[in-house]
Amino acid sequence: MNKQNALATVRKHGPRLLAVIVSIAVVALSGCHKSPHMSISPSAVPNCGAHTQPVSITLQWDATYATDGRVRFWIRDRRADTSTPELWTEQGWKGTMQSGPWMLPGTIISMTDASGEKTLAKVRIGSAPCKQ
Predict the structure, then answer these.
(1) What distance in Å separates the CA atoms of residue 28 and residue 132, rounded to the nearest whole number?
(2) Helix or strand or coil: residue 7?
(3) From 50's CA, which of 25, 31, 85, 104 has a CA 20 to 30 Å away?
(4) What is the pLDDT of residue 113?
(5) H/E element holding 86?
(6) CA 95 to CA 89: how far, in whole Å?
(7) Structure confidence at residue 19 as a pLDDT band (50, 70, 90)
(8) What CATH architecture does domain 37-128 belong to?
(9) Where are the domains of the chain?
């Protein structure tokens, strides 16, 4: 393709080509999380009332752009939204870890900066139907 043909193609399809390029850039950048986030797996555990069994969960987080290196995780009792959170662990700004078998439906996990003063993200373990 010579230079004149290339220019003619750009003139003819320029707006469409620009839209495609912008769309590709948006998709590529949508995976970049600048804000801190965390997720748990499983996101919900069976709630069988008095027979509910505690489970282990996997926690994954990324606070790369929100902290200078360390984050703290706090646990709040599922039965008392007003209870004082208890420090679970302090970790690096990004990672994955497994809890012990003590998570119950409704438990709240908060991620804060190293001082514990700024909440960066929060999740609540969901409740699934009992499988009995």
Answers:
(1) 44
(2) helix
(3) 85
(4) 94
(5) strand 86-92
(6) 12
(7) very low
(8) Sandwich (2.60)
(9) 1-32, 37-128
d(CA 7, CA 40): 52
In 3-state terms, what secondary structure has residue 115?
coil
> Is 105 in contact with 125 (CB distance < 8 Å)?
yes
Q: How confident is the model at residue 89 (pLDDT cuts 50, 70, 90)?
A: very high
Cα separation, 93 vs 63, in Å, equals 5
Please report the pLDDT score of residue 12 as a whole number: 65
State the Cα–Cα distance between residues 22 and 14, nearest whole angstrom: 12
The whole-model pTM stands at 0.71
* Closest C-alpha to 73, from 92, 55, 49, 100: 92
Question: Residue 118: what are its φ and ψ, rounded to 5°?
Answer: -115, 120
